[in-house]
Amino acid sequence: ARSLTRKYGRVNDRQVSSLRERLCRYPDGVLKVIVTHHPFDVPAGADEREIVGRAQMAMEALASCGADLLLAGHMHVSQTGHTAERYKIKGHAALYVQAGTATSNRVRGGESNSFNLVRLKHPYIQVERRTWDSGARDFRRGPAETFMHTPDGWARLTDEVAAGVTFDEHGTGL
Predict the structure, then answer these.
(1) Is the pLDDT of residue 171 over 60?
(2) Cα distance between residue 108 and residue 110, in whole Å
(3) What is the pTM of this model?
């Protein structure tokens, strides 16, 4: 987000060109992660104006480099989803992950304070939500979703299949 921009953030051609230049130099098989403040998608029923401005242009450029994962905040609501649901870009679907509110009182929708722990191991991405337990005064493990990259994009694994995917203590694969 630009300085003092709280709502309706946007990306410009220069930013997208810089991202594209950096991402495209990496080969397939390298997980390509983009972090933004304003999201590329919003939860159902949310104000669509909260989607980062010029998102379609940016998504087309990022798709051409094989972007895998888009991380964002701003909405203060935890969510995961696929870019293919909003952006119809042939041959590309990235995973997007929204973070909740970790340390402030700007929680939304009855959600407790939380943050996401993201583990990467190509071709897998695991997103585990950590939720504040006020009684214990600690963040506790919450639900986890594990995704695998397929020719059609990122597919959520069943809990049984995901249990067979291991990550080391640094969040990378063994």
Answers:
(1) no
(2) 6
(3) 0.84
